[in-house]
């Protein structure tokens, strides 16, 4: 038991050190050179205690790029919709845990080991800032285009379109799609968000498995 206790203590120390270094070592290490863009778009990062999403402001090119969402009943063409909200995550945990009260052992085990992934898409009206659960960032047009490419490439595709997960939704206007990549404890929803933000020209920590570490690194380096 003493050996097990020492091992667990060492493991927790290593994990804590990794999270700390992953937060305070920036990625990329040096700030990208470039002039301030003449035109910017304001994107949002939405967070809860374990998960982050990216909210993209709706405009014509965004509607055109993701028009396939309309076919599934997501009202991206509605004038009331101001943002499309994208999140990537583990299939079992995402689909089987709509609320904390429905937490089950099998999705948790898959999330800690290895799971297939899904994209969750929702819409939102006006989002109030400042807000403890919302962080906003201005990016240029080229970086927005790169971010849209990154998000679009996260969806699995077949010749006939994106792979909708039948019957999977939390509410009337959100949907789930099969995604590229696999989910595990090291490469999870928040590391996907961080990679997307780096594509958008922002700096994150080197490894951000938790919303708190991602949010802190974003505040430090942007």
Q: Key features?
A:
222 residues, 7 helices, 35% helix, alpha+beta, two-stranded antiparallel sheet, single chain, CHP02117
Summary of the model, kept short:
The chain has 222 residues and is of the alpha+beta class. The protein is 35% helix and 25% strand. It has helices at residues 2-24, 60-65, 91-96, 105-112, 141-153, 189-199, 211-221; strands spanning 26-27, 40-47, 52-57, 83-90, 115-124, 134-140, 157-158, 161-162, 175-183, 204-205.
Secondary structure elements and pairings:
Elements: H1 2-24, E1 26-27, E2 40-47, E3 52-57, H2 60-65, E4 83-90, H3 91-96, H4 105-112, E5 115-124, E6 134-140, H5 141-153, E7 157-158, E8 161-162, E9 175-183, H6 189-199, E10 204-205, H7 211-221
Antiparallel strand pairs: 1-10, 2-3, 2-6, 3-4, 4-5, 5-9, 7-8
Helix pairs in contact: 1-7
How would you describe this structure to a colleague?
The chain has 222 residues and is an alpha+beta fold. It has one domain. 35% of the residues lie in helices and 25% in strands. The chain is built from seven helices and ten strands. Strands 6-2-3-4-5-9 form a six-stranded antiparallel beta sheet. Strand 2 (40-47) and strand 3 form a beta hairpin. InterPro entries: CHP02117. It holds the Pfam family DUF2459.
The portion of residues assigned to helices is 25-40%
Order of helices and strands: HEEEHEHHEEHEEEHEH
Number of helices: 7
Strand order of the largest sheet: 6-2-3-4-5-9
Give the biggest sheet.
Answer: 6 strands, antiparallel
Termini separation comes to: 46 Å
The total tally of domains equals 1
Low-confidence stretches: none
The radius of gyration over CA amounts to 18 Å
According to DSSP, the number of beta strands is 10
Mean pLDDT: 89
The secondary-structure class comes to: alpha+beta
Shape designation: globular
């Amino acid at each position: 038991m003493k050996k097990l206790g020492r091992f667990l203590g060492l493991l927790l120390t290593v994990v804590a050190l990794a999270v700390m270094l992953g937060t305070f070592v920036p990625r990329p290490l040096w700030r990208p050179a470039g002039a301030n863009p003449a035109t910017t778009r304001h994107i949002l990062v939405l967070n809860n205690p374990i998960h982050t999403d990216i909210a993209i402001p709706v405009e014509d090119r965004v509607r055109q790029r993701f028009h396939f969402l309309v076919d599934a009943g997501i009202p991206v063409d509605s004038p009331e919709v101001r943002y499309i909200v994208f999140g990537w995550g583990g299939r079992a945990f995402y689909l089987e845990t709509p609320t904390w009260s429905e937490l089950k052992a099998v999705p948790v085990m898959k999330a800690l080991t290895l799971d297939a992934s899904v994209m969750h898409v929702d819409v939102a009206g006006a989002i109030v800032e400042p807000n403890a659960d919302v962080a906003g960032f201005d990016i240029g047009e080229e970086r927005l285009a790169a971010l849209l490419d990154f998000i679009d490439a996260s969806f699995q595709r077949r010749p006939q379109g994106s792979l909708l997960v039948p019957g999977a939704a939390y509410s009337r206007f959100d949907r789930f799609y099969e995604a590229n990549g696999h989910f595990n404890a090291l490469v999870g929803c928040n590391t996907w968000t961080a990679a997307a933000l780096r594509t958008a020209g922002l700096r994150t920590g080197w490894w951000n498995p938790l919303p708190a570490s991602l949010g802190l690194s974003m505040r430090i380096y942007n």
